[in-house]
Specification:
The chain is α/β, with parallel strands linked by helices and about 400 residues long. The chain folds into 2 domains: about 290 residues, TIM Barrel (Alpha-Beta Barrel), CATH 3.20.20; about 90 residues, no CATH class. About 35% of the residues lie in helices and about 10% in strands. Strand 3, helix 4 and strand 4 form a beta-alpha-beta unit. Helix 4 packs across helix 6. The longest helix is centred in the middle third of the chain and has 24 residues. The protein binds iron/sulfur cluster. Iron/sulfur cluster (SF4) binds next to loops.
């Protein structure tokens, strides 16, 4: 089998791993080698469903000794197999990079022989690229759960990002569908990465020449909809992983059935909108101050498929609204539907010298259709006010002040 044929098989096999976005890396070329990634990370392009396509995204091999039921590469799967040598991956990466097709490499693999052996092969690719070819592009390596601490340490020296996949939301799910995998082993690998990164960051503060370790942090992927795990359970696991291991991102991948799949798997794909709602919730938890427990409940453990989670929360908390856009603190403004994170910052800065009108919010591209029922501005109070004893605006506005006295430019 030639390299082109292997590439077709192993690039196709890698498409199921979504944990490949590459933002956050900063690596300068030294003038001798090729490539660099800077500032906001390398340039990306994304497919319409959000996958990053600017990396060469391949598996070292789709042979795997594990039998994860939801995975096409499992040992019991009847698919065509292929395996690159580390040198073939190095050559492909450099060829593609020089032709400007890619800005980096995302390299994962099925488990061959053992977690340590597999990890060694992945490291060999990254090490050769960095040390022999002075490759300055982005490298994302899969951290194989169960690989030894020594190898995780090495991997982080050559890779910008590492990711150990959690695969499924709960240990019970793993028992059912990925019998060789254990949450404790996966989390132990995440912990090794987090601890080593903390140490390296600390050392670099004291001695800036200390080598970076996984500068773009770690991420993970969770398959959604392969088991009956609820959105509440998924968000609970996400909260735990972000808090415990300082993950940069969790990627949620809706399960999609494949031919002759195991009878334990659902026949229908997880709705794409469910994946989208999980990303929205994840964003709300990381940047808007929401907790997993607020976004779902024991009685309603699934996110709405028809409405974004912030609006759902707002509708069920009338006592919180309306919010005065000219006086409410940051954490309160963040809870208003239709007002995004950046606009909250803009509002806070503008209102230091100007009291905001609806027209001002329009200029900021606030989604007024969503926001108007929940906010008060100088020239706006919502039609449907909460009952008087429930409404708790944050300031008493002088609604009768002449508007002409309040105008100003943005
Ligand atoms: S270990 Fe990874 S590649 Fe192997 S069967 Fe499980 S999910 Fe697939």
């Amino acid at each position: 089998m030639n390299v082109q044929q292997k590439l077709e098989i192993l690039a196709d096999a890698a498409k199921y791993d979504a944990s490949c976005a590459s933002s956050g890396a900063k690596r300068s070329g030294n003038g001798k080698g090729v490539g660099h990634s800077d500032g906001m990370g390398i340039c990306h392009s994304y497919t319409p469903d959000g996958r990053c396509v600017s990396l060469l995204k391949i598996l070292l091999t789709n042979f795997c000794t594990y039998d994860c039921v939801f995975c096409v590469n499992r040992i019991s799967s009847d698919i065509q197999r292929a395996r690159f040598t580390p040198d073939e991956v190095v050559k492909l990466t450099l060829d593609f990079y020089k032709r400007n097709y890619i800005e980096g490499l995302f390299l994962s693999s099925g488990i061959i022989q053992s977690p340590d052996y597999t990890m060694e092969q992945l490291i060999q690719v990254a090490k050769t690229l960095r040390t022999e070819h002075h490759f300055g592009g982005y490298i994302h390596l899969k951290a194989i759960p169960g690989a030894s601490e020594r190898l995780i340490e090495q991997a982080g020296l050559f890779a910008d990002r590492l990711s150990a996949n959690i695969e499924l939301p709960t240990q019970q799910d793993l028992v059912q569908l990925a019998p060789e995998k254990k949450t404790t082993v996966i989390e132990s690998t995440m912990n090794k990465i987090a601890v080593r990164k903390d140490e390296a960051d600390e050392d670099r503060r004291k001695l800036p020449s200390t080598p970076k370790f996984a500068a773009a942090g770690q991420s993970t992927q969770m398959v959604v909809g392969a088991t009956p795990a609820t959105d509440r359970e998924i968000l609970k696991t996400a909260t735990h992983l972000y808090g415990q291991y300082k993950l940069r991102r969790i990627y949620y991948t809706g399960f999609s059935p494949y031919p002759d799949a195991d009878a334990r798997l659902p026949l229908k794909p997880a709705p794409l909108i469910r994946e989208h709602r999980l990303y929205q919730s994840d964003w709300l938890m990381r940047f808007y101050g929401f907790t997993a427990a607020e976004l779902t409940s024991e009685e309603e453990p699934s996110l709405s498929l028809t409405e974004d989670p912030k609006t759902t929360w707002a509708k069920s908390h009338p006592e919180f609204f309306p919010v005065d856009v000219n006086a409410a603190p940051r954490e309160v403004l963040l809870r208003v539907p239709g007002i995004g994170y950046r606009n909250v910052e803009r509002i806070l800065s503008i209102r230091k010298y100007h009291r905001l009108l609806i027209d001002d919010l329009k200029k900021l591209h606030v989604r007024l259709k969503n926001a108007l029922p929940y906010l008060i501005a100088i020239d706006h109070i919502p039609h449907q006010q909460p009952a008087a004893d429930e409404a708790q605006p944050f300031t008493q506005l002088d609604l009768f002040a002449p508007l002409s006295a309040l105008t100003g430019s943005l």
